[in-house]
Amino acid sequence: MTDFQIERKQKRRRLLDFASRLAELRDRVAPREFGRLMARIRPFSMMSYARLKGIYKGVCDVINRDIKGDFVECGTARGGCAGLMRLTAKVRGDDRPMWVYDTFEGLPLPSVDDPDHELAKSRVGQCRGEFEDVRSLFENLGVIENTRLIKGLFQDTLPETRPESISLLHLDGDWYESTKVCLDHLYDKVTPGGVIQIDDYGHWAGARKALHEFFEARGISVKLTYLDYTGRQFVKP
Ligand SMILES: C[S@@+](CC[C@H](N)C(=O)[O-])C[C@H]1O[C@@H](n2cnc3c(N)ncnc32)[C@H](O)[C@@H]1O
């Protein structure tokens, strides 16, 4: 990329960040549908406005385009984002199943494949959401039906328990190994035209590395849509 192209890309991202901050402000003052749904789950998610909106739009998009398959979130913590996924579908009369995976014991140990291994190690046990609390949240939101909570390491649970097809896949496991194992087990289940969002692309080098290694190994070329400094989304070719 030339200096001019880099500068243009940075300018565009600053504009997108600004537009997102304005939308967030507007949603606080006079919330539209997304603002109203987000207000119900906001205390239970650590994700930014822009990334939650990415999930909301992804759900609307796969429903509008009639993309078949379940919703999946790998890395749920306290359940806010997954709750938003199901709520968004519910208000559209769509009750496709949702699968939610987590240790429910917080972040596991990263591997040495994480370039920022030392920093990542200091986060072990963080982002913890309790299984029973997440279940109660889904009950309170009225989205417990058709929702499966699967407790354990992705490495142990995904080979055994996963949907036949996926329309929206949210990867939010932070580490290299956590992202890689989800792509290895779930990418082929995503229906072409389905939406994949990755939360940690900009924040954790291991997540980014796992995604690019996967693309390279499979010869996949996609346009990654910028959501904010760390979130990216793409449509499966
Ligand atoms: C950043 S948090 C998820 C945030 C959540 N999506 C939200 O809306 O706030 C990351 C989660 O991924 C889970 N996680 C990371 N690696 C995992 C693995 N290999 N197996 C199971 N859970 C994992 C952690 O337990 C943690 O709850």
Describe the structure.
The chain has helices at residues 3-29, 33-41, 49-64, 80-90, 117-121, 131-141, 154-157, 176-186, 205-218, and strands at 70-74, 98-102, 147-151, 166-171, 190-198, 225-226, 232-235. It has 237 residues and is of the alpha/beta class. The chain has a seven-stranded mixed beta sheet with strand order 3-2-1-4-5-7-6, with helices on both faces. The protein folds into two domains: 1-30; 42-235, Vaccinia Virus protein VP39 (Rossmann fold, 3-Layer(aba) Sandwich), CATH 3.40.50. The chain starts with a helix and ends with a strand. The structure holds S-adenosylmethionine.
Please specify the SSE layout and strand pairing.
Elements: H1 3-29, H2 33-41, H3 49-64, E1 70-74, H4 80-90, E2 98-102, H5 117-121, H6 131-141, E3 147-151, H7 154-157, E4 166-171, H8 176-186, E5 190-198, H9 205-218, E6 225-226, E7 232-235
Parallel strand pairs: 1-2, 1-4, 2-3, 4-5
Antiparallel strand pairs: 5-7, 6-7
This protein binds S-adenosylmethionine.
What features would you highlight for this structure?
binds S-adenosylmethionine, 7-stranded mixed beta sheet, alpha/beta, 15% strand, Rossmann fold, 2 domains
